[in-house]
Design brief:
heterodimer; A: about 400 residues; alpha/beta; Rossmann fold; 2 domains; 4-stranded antiparallel sheet; 18 helices; 14 strands; about 45% helix; about 20% strand; globular; B: about 270 residues; TIM Barrel; 9-stranded parallel sheet; 11 helices
Chain lengths: ~400, ~270
């Protein structure tokens, strides 16, 4: 399994997935980013600066918490929660943005752009840009602007400009398209902070590395708190950054099962979902080869998920390679299971998960029975659910006006 | 090894022998429908267009500005697929065997049709221009093995000198120089930068260098043609096609092409 940890190769491939499939104008910027990152990632000063931000600004390490009542509910394995929801700004996304903003600074870029789905990456980007006083533009699908209005307002309060994207399906993929177009146009002074382990090389590697702090902490905490590595780690997968961050430090630990949970939307059989690893084919979108929801002509299909952050037709290339190699398993849960799970976790544990994160919890209904009471499951609680209150109320038929 | 001259090579040679600048015109197949596209392709050729660039619509065309994006969407609403575009080229060839056709689009739609790209009738098309692959890529390595298809690559103002020579080595037909930093149809044309970059590209290759992205007026075309071997007109044509397609007043478009054609031959 050693060969999985040392990827991507110098061309940005994880097995057959990944690469750099972008318009020519961007090729130079990607090379520049790759070189800057390679130079800085082992630089003690750079590492120290990031570590200090992670501790003092983000609030790391995030706790590993025993979910006693949830464990009792399933009366199977011990269920533990990696509390990324307690990070500053409320999700794992900030781990990546505090790192990338330092790359932007090192490269002398004055203008920051980002795409966002649920708005968490938009908030995390606007936050670090505000802290450095950099101009910041966030691209967001018009549909997501509506269903994540609280985060839109947070981004604006942080001084960033939100650009609602009407083209295509008006969701995350279209926000990415528009951010790429901005980048092509403003390539000289602009740094693009991609928010997931997607996009052209070196982004899937950089975003994974900055999120891998989660898995590294878990290695230490699991030994300290229950004297072994987890038997299984469960994380939701849209683009897949929280999952990749917690999985990666365990790739060589073949006893640790890795389970990614995709959005089945209205159900895998309905075709109305966002689960490319479960029901897609390899293809190329947004600069990388990976599993993709597409039709027989190579056109990208509309996705459906209650969760804006998972409502994306592609997935990070490293996940595609982990799927093919069998190192990780990917399942999918539908919107209804997710809503039920949201209520269950909120009532049992006093923790209100983001709808994205609720996918990982909902997987317990399917898999908890496979484990014994002396086994340990860890769920990556990738974000908190405050942003989703309006969506949950609507789904429950309750008016908040 | 000597190969017989392709239709594209012959066109380029005849332009060179006549000391003429090339006029390349882009349109999106299936916008507003394939019958109109066929009519427009013939009309373009009659109006002085030397090479046709046929856009293959894609759901996520990241290099396109709003005008061409909207055209892709309109074409996709009509279910325009690469297979149907092959049919379009075949029909076009019944009346026109001289005007080279370049299929321009995004890698994913080509990959989904790899088998069809190996069929000999594809050779009614003469080249592919895939916007989202690195210019130095060998088409064979991404699965397109039809030797009848030339591979047109883009070079941008941001392309490093080292990569320019690699891209030139892996290209055939002509080099497409992107005149600006931006998407198609932008308006930040920089003629003096284009001139020095095109001169450098010419020092690296014997292929002709055409300039495109952001050329709108006969004046733009004229100034760029002076520093290159030809110009590519895209967004402004696509905009006119959309405006005039309801009443099929395509004559106005042909007049515009005539003006461009004259402007670059002065």
């Amino acid at each position: 399994m050693n060969n999985l940890t040392n990827l991507p190769n110098s061309e940005g491939f994880f097995g057959e997935y990944g690469g750099k499939f972008v318009p020519e104008t961007l090729m130079h910027a990607l090379k520049e980013l790759d070189e800057t990152y390679s130079k800085l990632k082992n630089n003690p000063k750079f590492i120290e600066e990031i570590d200090q931000d992670l501790v003092q600004f983000v609030g790391r390490p995030s706790p590993l918490y025993f979910a006693k009542r949830l464990t009792d509910h399933y009366s199977g394995p011990q269920i533990w929660l990696k509390r990324e929801d307690l990070n500053h700004t409320g999700a794992h996304k900030i781990n990546n943005t505090v790192g990338q903003i330092l790359l932007a600074k090192a490269m002398g870029k004055k203008r920051i752009i980002a795409e966002t789905g649920a708005g968490q990456h938009g908030v995390a980007t606007a936050t670090v840009a505000a802290r450095l006083g950099l101009e910041c533009h966030i691209y967001m699908g018009a549909k997501d602007v509506e269903r994540q209005s609280l985060n839109v307002y947070r981004i604006k309060l942080l001084g960033a400009e939100v650009h609602a994207v009407d083209s295509g399906t008006a969701t995350l993929k279209d926000a990415l398209n528009e951010a790429m177009r901005d980048w092509v146009t403003n390539i000289e002074d602009t740094y693009y902070i991609i928010g997931s382990v997607t996009g052209p090389h070196p982004y899937p590697m950089i975003v994974r590395d900055f999120n891998a702090i989660v898995g590294r902490e878990l290695r230490k905490q699991s030994i300290e708190q229950f004297s072994q590595y987890p038997d299984a780690i469960i994380a939701c997968v849209g683009g897949g950054s929280n999952a990749m961050g917690i999985f990666h430090p365990f790739l060589d630990e073949s006893n640790v099962e890795l389970i990614g949970v995709e959005a089945a939307g209205s159900g895998l059989m309905s075709g109305m979902h966002a689960a490319p690893l479960n029901d897609g084919e390899p293809g190329i979108l947004h600069g990388a080869k990976s599993y993709l929801m597409q039709d027989e002509n190579g056109q990208v299909i509309d996705t459906h998920s209650v969760s804006a952050g998972l409502d994306y037709p592609g997935v990070g290339p490293e996940h595609s390679n982990l799927k093919d190699s069998g190192r990780a398993n990917y399942i999918a849960v539908d919107d209804k299971e997710v809503l039920d799970s949201f209520h269950l976790i909120t009532k049992l544990e006093g923790i209100m998960p983001a709808l994205e994160t609720a996918h990982a919890f909902a997987a317990l209904d399917h898999i908890a029975k496979n484990y014994k009471s002396n086994q340990y499951l860890v769920i990556n609680v990738s974000g908190r659910g405050d942003k989703d209150i309006n969506t949950v109320a609507t789904m429950d038929g309750i008016s908040l006006d | 090894m000597e190969y017989p001259l392709t239709r594209l090579d012959e066109k380029i040679l005849s332009l060179k022998n006549a000391s003429k600048k090339a006029l390349v015109a882009y349109l999106v197949a299936g916008d507003p429908d394939l019958d109109s596209t066929l009519e427009l392709m013939h009309g373009f050729a009659d109006a002085g267009v030397d090479i046709l660039e046929v856009g293959v619509p894609f759901t996520d065309p990241i290099a396109e500005g709003p005008i061409i994006q909207a055209a892709h969407d309109r074409a996709l609403k009509n279910n325009t697929s690469l297979t149907k575009i092959f049919g379009l080229v075949k029909k076009f060839r019944k009346k026109n065997v001289d005007t080279p056709i370049i299929l321009m689009g995004y890698i994913n739609t080509f990959l989904a049709n790899i088998k069809a790209l190996e069929e000999p009738y594809v050779s009614g098309s003469d080249a592919v221009l895939i916007v989202d692959i690195p210019g130095e890529s060998d088409l064979k390595n991404i699965g397109i093995k039809n030797t009848n298809l030339a591979s047109i690559s883009l070079i941008a103002p941001t392309t490093s000198k080292e990569r320019i020579s690699k891209i030139c080595d892996n290209s055939s037909g002509f080099i497409y120089y992107v005149t600006l930093r931006g998407v198609t149809g932008s308006s930040n044309l920089n003629i003096s930068e284009a001139e020095s970059n095109i001169n450098y590209i010419r020092s690296q290759t014997s292929l002709p260098v055409f300039a495109g992205f952001g050329i709108k007026t006969p004046d733009d075309a004229s100034s760029l043609s002076k520093i290159s071997d030809g110009v590519v007109i895209g967004s402004s044509l696509v905009e006119m096609i959309n405006k005039h397609s309801r009443k099929k007043e395509f004559k106005k478009i042909y007049n515009y092409l005539n003006e461009i054609s004259e402007a670059i031959s002065l």
